[in-house]
Amino acid sequence: MYLARRTRVALLLVLVAIIAAGCATRPVAPEGAAAKPQPHAVLNAVTTDRALEDRILALDPEHVTEDDIRNTLAKGPTPRILLIHGGIWPVYLAMTSFGRFMVAMGYPEDKIRHPGDKRWSHSPYEDGAQIAGLVAWYYEHDGMHPMMIGHSQGGVETVKVLYELAGRFTSPIQVWNPYTDAAEDRTSIVDPITGNETPVIGVVASYASAVGAGSASIIMPNQWSMANRVYLIPDSVEEFTGYSIENDIFALTPSGTEDNNRYRANGRALVHNVVLPATYNHITVPVSRSMADDPGVRAWISAYAPGSPSAASPPDTPAGGVLWVADNWYKIKKHWVLEAQGLIRAKRALSGER
Fold first, then answer.
1. How buried is residue 345: exposed, middle or buried, by Cβ count under 10 Å (0-12/13-18/19+)?
2. How far, CA to CA in Å, does 38 sit from each of 33, 119, 143, 190?
3. Which tens digits make up the pLDDT trace of 168-196?
4. Amino acid 319: pLDDT
């Protein structure tokens, strides 16, 4: 009887969700968000004051403190982050946890959540070309190259999107508008820095990573095209980190140090391999929201730098993978600085400032 009652409640909740979704209205886009920007419109729209710009330009991308984030970075331009969750329900909650962690650490929430429906992450079952078109749209409207973080099958999808941006699958690729959730009738953008027309194919991400993106994820029909490709990173990203969990039965990586489990570049992309401990759980490795509330763990994550002495001794945490969290967060901060600095320099160059 108890089980039957629970089933009726669950069905009722599903019905309410369906009705609510049917009654939902499409969010209104900010002025200009639905239009194709004019050349240099993004640079002309940058409104940060010179003192803040000077502080951003003075930041060291390799050493970003919490004070830097709170008093400088979070007040200036911020690039978009696309989170791509795994393929088994409800593993999306793990990536939501990482999104909430980043917000707790100071990353603007509106630069992580989808601007249309406000979801925290993308599905690995979405069309890779669609996400590539979305990456181009964000770059065109923000003037900063987006980042992508993928988990499990979402890691495979992340690399797949990089291949789409490199022109290996779909050609041409249409620009995808997040507010209309539809393709625009164009396959090129106005480069926000140069002002020139440029195809979607050729746009790059600043940073991307994948964890648990092993052979098991490629057996899914939507990822068959990634066979023999998932560990080979194209030039459509500036820096990439591949995370392998030792003895990961889901990703079929018995040893993260084996050559066939190592990511490598097929061009100029900077590619790192990080082997995570076998104690990390494939499903829950992104679960991290509570790490921002533990003073000791938070301090370790904030001070983390790859190759530093302390990096070899991560603190114990009840859930998630603190090394994965810290290494990603370090590189996200780094590219946050680099993209903000690039936008400011381009703005000053356009206006003749120094």
1. middle
2. 12, 29, 12, 7
3. 999 999 999 999 999 999 999 999 999 99
4. 81
